[in-house]
Write a structure and sequence with these properties.
Blueprint: H1 8-17, H2 20-32, H3 36-40, H4 44-49, E1 51-55, E2 62-66, H5 69-78, H6 97-110, H7 120-133, H8 138-145, H9 150-157, H10 159-166
Antiparallel strand pairs: 1-2
Helix pairs in contact: 1-2, 2-7, 8-9
Length: about 170
Amino acid sequence: MRSRWVSDEVIRAILVALTPPNRLAIEMSYRYGMRIGDVLATKTEDVRKGRWTYKEEKTGKRRRITLSPRFQIELLQQAGRIYVFEHRLDVKQHRTRFAVYKDVRRVAEFFRLGAGVSPHSARKGYAVREYHQSGGDLKRVQRLLNHSDEAVTMIYALADEIISKKE
């Protein structure tokens, strides 16, 4: 199943209805364009620094993150000793992607948003927002998402227009 883009309004509604740790995880993905697996693997010590480089789980590419001070405080209030998003049974592991997915699907069903709304929808929302804020600079969005292929970036950045054409 492919994730689909949802508007900023819908993302905000989803955030309100999620459990607090999952809300922060989705918000981090939405603010910084990170994949949910990389968000969940974020270590507390990195958040304390406020700026760090990590290796993307999916691609193996390196990426730099700089947190806003206010969001850094929110994350630290939630953070466990090792991971910001602790596993519910084992503090030495991070929360699973499935745990976040389940919560997002629960909220999507409650709001009757249909199929395709998933944690990855936040990353697509980030791409669309950055594309519009940059005045349509596809290369910038490609760099921010760390994509190798411009065509993939185009699918993300133009997701709002693709959805509106289908409706």
